[in-house]
Specification:
By secondary structure, the chain is an alpha/beta fold. It is 42% helix and 15% strand. It has a six-stranded parallel beta sheet with strand order 2-1-3-4-5-10, with helices on both faces. A two-stranded parallel sheet has the order 6-9. The protein has a two-stranded parallel ribbon with strand order 7-12. Helix 2 (50-60) crosses helix 4 (82-102) and helix 6 (186-200) crosses helix 8 (250-261). The longest helix is centred in the first third of the chain and has 21 residues, at 82-102.
Length: 318
């Protein structure tokens, strides 16, 4: 049940609002009747710089901030840019929360990352396991930088009574995803590889790792809905997972994408490349109990939608 009254006359700032998830969040805000949505574009506001954060807050005067902005990427990007991923994500978050509190922004919705969980978290991942170990090494700098938002959210609620939320969405996918081979995550990367290999008449596709890790994927529409339901109904700083509640092995994922894209060649596993975290599946009970969120999209249908979107838009994608 959408709480439209919550959004009455609200001014909402969505950092990262021009991105993959952000565009869907902004569209859903407008569907809820929010007329005043501010999207700080990276060309105009560098949110790692305090003066740009101050200018953004002055320009937007928000009642609520949904902080989606992040520097993100797959395993390769994380391995190449660990310092940037740590510094940029940390500085964006820590300064923005502090200035939002200082300037009287009523509510702050912080988006964390599944990479914050320990490498060997028992499956399904429960929020209480977040501090049970060190994250998977390939994306630990990113995961820990985002995890500091949770520490900050809880500290600011404890000392100042500040209404901050911390949500942990699992890997996202869907139409509009990032298909750039240098920075894309596993689903768009594999879709692009399979379609390009098929079109070029290649007889093999090389895939990183050995196919054994498992992943969970959340359709972008579901993720956006979960974030807005939390903004409407949740007023605690305990972390909340947003997921679909299932896992699929990378091997099965690749075979499914090959089948759905029509690639009939062989799949070659490059075991010199890292696997990433061994398993990933979330316990999603808290999100349902606290604000009624449950993912709706089936994985096969969501995958088909994503493949179709790439086919229709590939000429515009670099």
């Amino acid at each position: 049940m959408i709480n439209n009254n919550f959004w009455n006359n609200k001014r909402v700032c969505v950092t990262g609002g021009a991105g993959f998830l952000g565009k869907v969040v902004v569209r859903k805000l407008k569907e809820r009747g929010v007329k005043d949505v501010f999207i700080p574009h990276i060309e105009d506001y560098d949110l790692t710089k305090l003066q740009d954060i101050n200018r953004m807050l002055e320009d937007s005067k928000p009642d609520l901030i949904i902080h989606l902005a992040a520097q993100v990427g797959g395993i390769g990007a994380n391995l190449e840019h660990p310092a940037e991923f740590f510094y940029n994500n940390l500085m964006m978050g820590v300064q923005l929360v502090h200035r939002a509190w200082e300037t009287g922004v009523e509510k702050f919705v912080a988006i964390g990352t599944i990479c914050a969980y320990p490498k060997f978290t028992p499956v399904p991942f429960r929020e209480e396991n977040l501090w049970d170990g060190y994250p998977e090494e390939t994306n630990a700098p990113y995961g820990l930088a985002k995890k500091m938002l949770l520490v900050q959210a809880q500290a600011y609620r404890q000392q100042y009574g500040y209404n901050t939320l911390f949500l942990l969405p699992v890997n996202l996918y869907g139409p509009g995803d990032n298909f750039n081979p240098k920075s894309s995550h596993v689903i768009p990367a594999l879709i692009r590889k399979c379609i390009e290999a098929k079109d070029a008449g290649l007889d093999e596709v090389v895939v990183w790792g050995d196919g054994s890790p498992t992943r969970e994927f959340l359709y972008v529409e579901d993720a956006a809905e979960g974030i807005l339901m939390a903004a409407e109904k949740y007023n605690e700083s305990e972390p909340v997972n947003l997921g679909a509640g299932y896992e699929i092995s990378i091997k099965n994922l690749v075979e499914l994408i090959a089948k759905k894209t029509g690639f009939t060649g062989s799949l070659v596993w490059d075991t010199s490349k890292p696997n990433g975290q061994p398993r990933r599946q979330l316990d999603t009970k808290r999100a349902f109990d606290k604000f009624g969120f449950k993912a709706k999209m089936t994985f096969e249908e969501g995958l088909e939608n994503t493949i179709n979107w790439f086919r229709e838009n590939r000429e515009k994608i670099s």
